[in-house]
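REQUEST FORM: STRUCTURE PREDICTION
Request ID: SP-0412
Submitted by: Lab K.M.
Chain count: 1
Length (residues): 128
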Amino acid sequence: MKLRIRGDSLRLRLKRSEVEQLAAGNSVVETTRFPGAEFCYRLDVVDGDVCAASFDAGTLTVQLPSDAVRNWASGNEVSIHAEQSLARNTLSILVEKDFACLAPGDHREHEDDADTFPHPDAGSGNGC
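STATUS: Completed
RESULT:
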């Protein structure tokens, strides 16, 4: 699972096995270790219809509704998107399937396309 944070937006990209794990009702968890601390980010599947994020004790948790996860995992939808109201603005939450890059190269030497979804534009001649 990859995490991108920019301003008041979260974007998480999941490989195939992670989408399957969520669809089975299991959490997907990643941890980044720093000297003296850890940062954990996780996706949890919950009952109900609200997508929400929270941050507590070094852990970012995004809760996704189970029905939305099942529909997303089994269909052609690329993402689950939600907006969460904050005191002064809105937090944008985007959870996506991770597609294989169309333009592999030296700029991607630390990227791994194993277990990604086939890119919908594969064979089109378009790049990433």
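NOTES: Strands lie at 2-6, 9-14, 28-34, 37-46, 52-56, 59-65, 79-85, 90-97.
Reviewed by: T.R.
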